[in-house]
Design goal:
This protein is an all-alpha fold. Helices cover 65% and strands 2% of the residues. The chain folds into four domains: 167 residues, Winged helix-like DNA-binding domain superfamily/Winged helix DNA-binding domain (Arc Repressor Mutant, subunit A); 97 residues, Tetratricopeptide repeat domain (Serine Threonine Protein Phosphatase 5, Tetratricopeptide repeat), CATH 1.25.40; 231 residues, Tetratricopeptide repeat domain (Serine Threonine Protein Phosphatase 5, Tetratricopeptide repeat, Alpha Horseshoe); 122 residues. Helix 5 packs antiparallel against helix 6 and helix 14 crosses helix 16.
Length: 645
């Protein structure tokens, strides 16, 4: 089933999630005009008047019929000849677009905003956040000059503004007023006539303990309304000013538990920066603890932590104390689940510093420090597949076991996991690592590493098609993440549930829609190593699994996976010589979660291009993974069973 996105430039997608070519501007205008009618019939005469305004050409009726015919073929390419169209139908003297409610983003958005009014603040905030994420620009952005689109554009814009304010209101009620202040400040700047936005901004400031700022906002709103619109503020704003001045109970407490925690954090940081009995060495050690917390939180904090981490290591090295530097490097024991580095340049600097520091430590003793440095090397050099990195992981594990240090062993096992992608078929090895991490962490209160163990076992379950096992691990991971405030886990469990649809035989359109819904989580995760090209690869897996036509070569940004995808696209498009040439120059795929997936694409391309040498190479690489699902080792996507003959 085709879908339509109109919350931004108009875009139609097929059941696999790929963009549909809509040809010329008149074709697009016909489709947009019918979409605005929301299933109602638009008479042919109205279409002609709307498309050409005052001077339609003599053959306007014939042109409209041509546009409609072209659109029908684009929207339903598999419809048999002479079969009645199901999506763009003829009714009486006009046409109607009969897409399902969930097929149009504007309809989904409107329904979600309406439903959010009946939800509690937690569910409402989540629903509205997801709904607002669907907006890619002004509604029907391609048709801003068309009078027939003006009313619908205005209606949807108003709905969006209401949703922004409803989302802010829900987050304030959840006890997070400080978080919404920047968003609301930008909102009232762009929309100064929105009195509810001004009221919410004042309320958020008041509950954040900024009572003077809250009062200033109300007075600023009064001035803007008077100067720009010649209006007096409404009752709600007038009442807000009085309530702030009298500290009315109706405004709630100006301090809530989440903000109290933030205040404690800020005071502690201020004391440290003010020189509260902390020397340089103590400051560096405490900085690493702070960076570790930022990294686990994900999002922008992850990138900031990695950047500041390098600066902290450099500062430690300048003090000329290898043991201090080893502690600064090794204390950043943040578990990693994705085997492609997020910041490879920064990671290389950390590895180089760890190697220098290890060489500077005494030959005997300092085993714990050496183990942490080795584990760091294994973690930060992930995806490279180098023997040196695997050796570092093995040595770190051996040292940690000899020291009987559970936290150190968990850190070292994380490094062993990251170095377990150098060849296909190692899911059983990783599953054993995950099982040990879960047991070790549960006994020794190491929740971050228990989460890592759960995700590792989820991925391993997916590799062997064990949906019940994967469900169990996903549920346990979600419960732990909620308890310990680990938002990054949602990225993996949400993507797993999209993969689950593929594993249970759901329709291509349903699987593709689930992947597209999960994709925004990547953008907010702070993990660039997972972002570029992953959605496109997942949508390709849907097309391959459902035997749908593949995109044309050079039409899609495949990110870091392009070299292993393009040969298949070339072969399927008929350019077999070009496909064989690309296959002969192809390097071994990176040693990460998608190793088997990329080798499977190579095998498919080689088979389609009749390149026996490349086909044998791919099958030899995949042979250890026989019986597994290609790509499912990621817990994110699959290209089906591994084929080795």
């Amino acid at each position: 089933m085709a879908t339509l996105q109109v919350l931004g430039p108009m875009l139609a997608r097929n059941s696999a999630g790929e963009a549909i070519s809509l040809r010329g501007p008149k074709h697009r205008a016909v489709l947009a005009r019918l979409a605005i009618a929301r299933g109602r019939t638009v008479p042919l005469a109205v279409l002609i008047d709307d498309l050409w305004n005052e001077a339609p050409p003599p053959r306007a009726r014939g042109s409209i019929r041509t546009f409609v015919g072209d659109l029908r073929r684009a929207l339903e390419p598999d419809r048999p000849p002479r079969a009645q169209p199901a999506l763009l139908v003829t009714e009486a003297t006009g046409y109607a677009l009969r897409l399902g409610e969930d097929a149009v983003d504007a309809t989904r958005f409107e329904r979600t905003v309406a439903d959010a009014r009946t939800l509690g603040p937690n569910d409402a905030a989540a629903a509205l956040h997801a709904a607002l994420a669907e907006w890619r620009g002004p509604a029907y952005a391609d048709f801003s000059e068309e009078r027939w689109a003006a009313a619908e554009r205005s209606r949807l814009t108003e709905l969006r503004l209401n949703a922004v304010e409803a989302s802010a209101d829900a987050r304030i009620r959840l006890g997070c007023p400080g978080e919404v202040v920047p968003d609301l400040d930008a909102h009232v700047t762009d929309n100064p006539w929105r009195e509810e936005a001004w009221r919410l901004l004042a309320l958020a400031l008041y509950r954040s303990g900024r009572q003077k700022d809250a009062l200033d906002v109300v007075r600023r709103a009064r001035a803007r309304l008077a100067d720009q619109l010649g209006l007096d503020p409404g009752d709600a704003l007038v009442r807000m000013e009085t309530e702030i001045l009298t500290h009315s109970d109706t405004l709630g407490s100006p301090t809530s538990p989440p903000d109290a925690a933030s205040t404690v954090w800020a005071k502690a940081a201020a004391s440290s920066s003010g020189g509260a009995a902390l020397g340089a060495r103590a400051r560096l050690r405490s900085t690493v603890d702070l960076l570790r917390s930022l990294a686990i939180a994900g999002g922008d904090g992850l990138k900031a932590a990695q950047q500041q981490r390098v600066a902290t290591i450099t500062a430690a090295e300048q003090l000329g104390d290898p043991q201090l530097t080893a502690r600064v490097i090794g204390s950043y024991d943040v578990p990693a689940i994705w085997a492609r580095s997020d910041f490879p340049d920064l990671a290389a600097q950390v590895v180089a510093a760890a190697e220098r520091t290890r060489a500077s430590l005494p030959v005997t003793g300092q085993d714990a420090a050496k183990a942490r440095l080795l584990a760091t090397i294994a973690l930060e050099s992930r995806g490279g597949g180098k023997p040196r990195s695997r050796k570092a992981a093995s040595e770190a594990e051996s040292l940690a076991r000899s020291l009987n240090d559970p936290a150190l062993l968990a850190f070292a096992l994380g490094g062993v996991f990251m170095q377990s992608f150098h060849r296909a078929g190692l899911s059983p090895t990783r599953d054993a690592i995950g099982a040990e991490l879960i047991t070790l962490s549960a006994r020794n209160d190491l929740p971050a590493f228990e989460l890592l163990g759960r995700l590792i076992r989820l991925q391993s379950s997916c590799a062997r098609g064990d949906i019940a096992g994967a469900d169990e691990q996903a549920a346990a991971a979600d419960a732990l993440a909620e308890r310990y405030e680990s938002p990054l886990i949602t990225v993996f469990t949400t993507w797993y549930r999209a993969l689950r649809l593929a594993l249970t035989g759901a329709e291509a359109s349903e699987v593709a829609a689930a992947y597209r819904a999960a994709a925004p989580l990547l953008d907010r995760s702070g993990m660039p190593g997972m972002q570029r090209g992953l959605l496109e690869l997942a949508l390709l897996s849907v097309r391959v699994q459902h035997h749908l036509a593949l995109p044309e070569p050079g039409t899609t940004d495949w990110g870091p996976y392009a070299r292993w995808v393009e040969p298949l696209l070339l072969a399927e498009s008929g350019a077999k010589d070009a496909a064989r040439a690309a296959l002969r120059d192809l390097p071994v795929p990176p040693a990460d979660h998608l190793l088997e997936a990329l080798w499977t694409l190579v095998a498919r391309a080689a088979e389609a291009a009749a390149d026996d040498e490349s086909l044998q190479r791919a099958r030899d690489a995949l042979r250890p993974a026989r019986g597994e699902l290609a790509g499912a080792q990621s817990g994110l996507l699959t290209f089906g069973p591994v084929v080795t003959r």
